[in-house]
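Subject: Sanity check before I submit

Could someone independently write out the structure tokens for this chain? I want to compare against mine line by line before I put it in a report. The sequence has 584 residues.
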Amino acid sequence: MDQALLLIHNELPGTSLTVYWKSERCYHCLFQFLANVSPSGAGKLSTAAITVGTEHGSILQINDTLHEKEVCRLEYRFGEFGNYSLLVKQAYSGVSGAACDLVVNKDPVDSDLPVTVAFLVGLAVIIAVSFLKLLLSLDDFNNWISKAINSREMDRLINSELGSPRRVEALSGDSQLDTWRWPASPHRFRCVDTFRGIALILMVFVNYGGGKYWYFKHSSWNGLTVADLVFPWFVFIMGTSIFLSMTSLLQRGCSKFRLLGKIVWRSFLLICIGIVIVNPNYCLGPLSWDKLRIPGVLQRLGVTYFAVAVLELLFAKPVPENCVLENGRPSVRDITASWPQWLLILMLESLWLGLTFFLPVPGCPIGYLGPGGIGDFGLYPNCTGGAAGYIDRLLLGDDHLYQHPSSTVLYHTTVAYDPEGILGTINSIIMAFLGVQAGKILLYYKDQTKHILIRFTAWSFILGLISVALTKVSENEGFIPINKNLWSVSYVTTLSSFAFFILLALYPAVDVRGLWTGTPFFYPGMNSILVYVGHEVFENYFPFQWKLRDNQSHKEHLTQNIVATALWVLIACVLYKKKIFWKI
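---
Independent answer below. Compare away.
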């Protein structure tokens, strides 16, 4: 999977060749040795067979082994399961040196076809369901259905064959439907639960493998993939929920002291559950404390939740009816009323910047943000993550960190590095606090749709501009690149900008106009902890996973991962209908 066969044919007599390779996505990387090809002679062609990656473009460098001189260089995007030949031969007449010609022996397969088909099928289902809902909303169609069902001929058949049934009371305006409605909470916004569900379902899908496609895996270092979007969105919407739920509890008379106890207990449970779930030996035997990973997703959520919730609780004030003045101009009370929190948040961000760019790290340059390994031309192989990695290894120890970070894929790093480490948690708190700001906008400007949309737009635009300034619209060349492993400040501003934009679309569609109910994402959003914990614990159990006939097939992996994700959506839907919610 994600590989192609390349045959290197050496037609240069008396010249031995060395083949080196690197991915075009590997920034400032050293070439990696692939193969040696002996010289041809006496009418015999020398050939070496190697495999090359197909996820990204490849850069091949062919050297004269004896003189250590480059013969030729090739940049090419190979296709999955393709068969290629690279002919290294004497240059054409009149031209000195050697020439390299690439020949396609067997066409590659279209590895993205299963994703395209799955997308089109999903789109067709959405269109069909939407069209059916539209038909059901039309009075003429409903009348036609009613006449078809309640025709006289049907009544005659029922009366003659089954006897005259007892009449039931017809539905009228006074009748009550036996359905469970959302609790009458003035602070419940369906778009928030829908957004949480979107982030959670994407997280489940990518955690299950995402069909083994590279864009459903975490980026090796700088840059963004689909997998890099979901966790920060979950953190963002957690911040929104913190403010909305805390305000509701305080308005219902819950004391701050009691609420602090709930915050401490919930944070403690999140951290404990996270440590148990991420431990790699929990299904294999007793806990191995010497190799137990301490950081993790739920651990970071627990610490972030505690910090943001306590910060808001300390400075909690009564929520105004609205922040719109009599002259129609909106005030900025949702920001000015939170100036103590903003001051502390800016101090936290200053701490992250100070430690990241000024903390001396043994053997590494000050302010290093690179992956180490073969990156930066192999100058700093053990400096993965700079200050962030150093702090984790110093305080937690190598054995208690994630041993297989995404940087090992392209950069061949050898030191432990945890993407949910200590320093990155600071920016996780920043992201959750921006989510709190979204909650304040929703609540302070309730029933003022125009002002809510304007503020969501403004926040998305401002945070986007900050990201542009920090990154210089470049993946690797900016002041602070977008990096999920580091949870860099540009990563936070970029994903927060996206989050505000998503709320800008969801709020009017779900809560104002009612164009979409949030289905099916609303259901897992209502049971997020259960779905997350459940999908981690039962990941390797049937029917969430089964033995594939072809383990090298994207189609089979994608089918399995979609089915597993859909099952969790179905489970969440059933639990919602049964009014079962796991809260901690």
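---
OP: Matches mine. For the report I'm noting this point. Confidence is low (pLDDT under 50) at residues 152-186.
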